[in-house]
Design goal:
Elements lengths: L12 H24 L7 E3 L14 H9 L4 H9 E3 L5 H34 L12
Antiparallel strand pairs: 1-2
Length: about 140
Amino acid sequence: MKRTPYEPPAQPVLGQVFDALLVLGLVLVTLYLPLLLKLAGSGTISDIADKPSWETLGQNPVMAGQWEKLGFDPASAATIVGTRFDYSFSWIGFAVTALVIVGYFVAMLRWSDREYRDVIAERFGENPTDGAAPER
């Protein structure tokens, strides 16, 4: 039994432009939404001494000299030196992210299984182990 060759659906140019703009919009929303909702980029830890000196800030004489060349004294440099990014890690967030990615991958494979099999059958025949060359 000969199968009809797979013919992908044709899409007009306007549909392609719409799809490209939609994907671009989704990417921008995905990238900016965590920033707009203050879910990313705001974690800092401040460790500022009451009476800062170069020694309490952990700066050696060479470092202090460089700070002074930039116009900073210990009091004005204390907020810069004492503010650090918070690199805390959430195992629950990691697990949820991994679950979503693996779930999406499995769902895509299951939904696309029939299409994959149709394309493979068209290109390589019904039973690729029988040794027969595919028809062209």
